[in-house]
Amino acid sequence: MTMSLGPYASFIVTSYAAAAIVVAILIGWVVLDYRNQARRLRELDRSGVTRRSGRSAVDTP
C-alpha cells in the first residue's frame, strides 16, 4: 500500500520523526530517573532511614 503525501511529504515525515524522537527521549529520561530514585531509596533503607508515611496517626509522639 503506497501513500501519496503530496507536496508536504517532507514536513509530515519530519514532524512524525521529531515527535518520535521526543517521545523516545522522554521514555529514556523516565527510565533513568526511576533507576536513580530506586537506587537512592535502597541506600536510605540500608542506612536505616524509615518512611514517615509508614507511621499511623497513633504512633506520632
UniProtKB/TrEMBL annotation:
Keywords: Cell inner membrane, Cell membrane, Cytochrome c-type biogenesis, Membrane, Transmembrane, Transmembrane helix, Transport
One GO CC annotation: plasma membrane
Protein's UniProt keywords contain Membrane: yes
GO terms classed as biological process: cytochrome complex assembly; heme transport
Subcellular localization, as worded in the UniProt entry: Cell inner membrane
NCBIfam families: cytochro_ccmD
Family stated for the protein in its record: Belongs to the CcmD/CycX/HelD family.
Protein name: Heme exporter protein D
Gene name, Swiss-Prot/TrEMBL: ccmD
